């Protein structure tokens, strides 16, 4: 591998001079500077990112910190983020966290040590207090999820309203004359009070009722939890916190020959590509992971590029992209 | 942001001295070295990665270059890769390529400029010739897919055998007395001759027949293409190149009240988490994306860490992880 020393030798100058050239110092004679630059070129010294680092500029990379890429909601989100960032020549440093705050802290601290341009973070804690010390002071972080406890000029939030989305899903079912909803929440999310508040509001407006159950975000566990809740509660409508859980519910209902939507209606959340693959097709509430990823990446770019005069998308447009919208398919309406 | 100049000022030395300290040069008095290190500490200079860069070491990051993260096969793969790499403290630089060789080239060239530790690449070209000039000379690249045309000490291949996997899937169906298979291939893959060879071998052994059709890797297009192929060919068995396509096929058959597996058996490929969510559950051929990701990341680490004496997994074990295995569920066997 080519070293600073090799460059210095080829250019016939000291290592210190090479280093001065790379840090854009003025204290180098033009002739020496020219020789150093030629040597770098000839030897194929990895100049781009290293030189950038030496000048203490940020590298064109954004940390993307998501709970679990094997959940299609987050896979769609990463795709949305990449579709925006790659057109602007930003790399993605990707991390799974399993919603573990220790892992989230570590990812953010690593980002700080690498002087990245920014970060997009989705985490599901009620309070983000624990992350305050780990956030980079010199770059912008956009949270794609709600969560209190952080307040600084370079911390931003762009998230869909879980309360409004849950409200829209519940109103859809109550308006179809469903009376007793089961909320299948994710044991993984820790900020579910907003979600329940949305359902509560719809229940109060319509005189409907609801109960809650918790499962992991996988088909099998959702199926198991739903089977217990179903025999206890006999709901005629279900709202699941993710489309994967809805698939588990559909699967159990199919096995037990309970008609969907004749006997029971189902609404998922996140309108993932899965929703079009079920039988019947799954009604699901947007925004999708893809929309959230696209909007979040545009929002972050507004901050990263604020000095460049590139104004990508105004906040209002981005927020509108994330308004709740029920995509009605066969699983809810007959 | 703290600069080299700030560090030099605080330490009371020249910038050149700071640079010498960071490049681990011996030509610095111990006392000055000490002062520089203290100044770096006090000022919170982003020392980790930059210092590493200055010493021309590679950064602890691996480029992961995959076609499309919104395909669960690749989302599972990224999860498998991250589960291995994060325990060894390697970051992931992630890129979607949509199997576009220009994008793949660009990703690899970026990696070269950043002096990453290695790369994991999945691409679907018959020949990888076009990538030869873009591959980093100083780090290892592991291809998780087959493809000829590359030959160098730092280029490695660890992939499942598409031919053997297709053979196993076809034998499974022919052994169930299915006679006429439809192969639903992906218009996205360009290296499908191995795949067809596997089916051909099984057909010749058993006296069965087969025909082929091509669709995009999405449920709707698979459904559309299958509906045409079905009326022309009346297959009694289907093998799809991805589980997503199988979901499209299942959906069309369900709508048209054709019994699965009574009238027709279906086998997917890649045993994604989706396979457990369909009705009936989908028979699918392993290895899964997750297994390929795990094996590939371990394989790459063997090369990256070869000098450290850490021997993670022998190649034979890794190859065995990727042997074909039909996970039989309700969609094929009655």
From TrEMBL, chains A, B:
This is Transcriptional regulator, LacI family. The keyword Heme does not apply. It comes from [Clostridium] hylemonae DSM 15053. The keyword Nucleotide-binding does not apply. InterPro entries: HTH_LacI, LacI/GalR-like_sensor, Lambda_DNA-bd_dom_sf, Peripla_BP_I. Residues 2-56 form the HTH lacI-type domain. Gene3D superfamilies: 3.40.50.2300, lambda repressor-like DNA-binding domains. Keywords: DNA-binding, Transcription, Transcription regulation. The lineage of its organism: Bacteria, Bacillati, Bacillota, Clostridia, Lachnospirales.
